[in-house]
Amino acid sequence: RSDPRAQVRRMRAALLLIAMSILGYCKDETVSGHGGAGATWVLHSIDGTPFAARATLSFPEEGTLAGEAPCNRYSGAQTLPYPWFRAEALITTKRACPDLEAETRYLRALEDMTLVEVAGDTLLLTNDAGREMMFRAK
To answer: In this structure, are residues 103 and 70 in contact, taking their beta carbons and an 8 Å threshold?
Structure first.
């Protein structure tokens, strides 16, 4: 005959495992869930060259990105699991300014990136071709 207390303990353990499994599947696996959220990331360099204009990147919620390029605001999707990265479906406002060349360089580089690493106040985007974009948390 089985001990009723042992059955209750087994049932509780099973329910706990189920709950942990369900919660694990709900975790944000994008960069926003791995240190990227809650900060505005300011671009410092592209391919090791300081970026003179101002550009920012943020991850306002799971699967999204947004920021300010030198002339325009932009937003888009970033749904790949960390550490992979892809800026998808980017949309921008349409203001003209003297820094349009820098903006084009920034947005093209952002679209080329395939990996992301968040380490403290640094966010590094890279790709297999050796390109990189280094951001610092503001």
So the answer is: yes
